[in-house]
Amino acid sequence: MAPLLVTSSFLPLVEAQAKARRVTPRVVVVPHPVGGLNEAELAERIEAAAGALLPLADEARGSA
Length: 64
Prior knowledge:
By secondary structure, this protein is α+β, with helices and mostly antiparallel strands. Helix content is 53%, strand content 12%.
């Protein structure tokens, strides 16, 4: 299953839906909100998400 990028406000919804569907998603959580950020703030969120996403991608490829 591909990793899911979600903001912190929507994490409870993702967890509830995953439980109802009996799946365990690989989740990368970023602070909420994302909309309305300036360029520098958005770049910070992207860097943080990329740092969390890369190990998940390696794990999915079996190279972790």
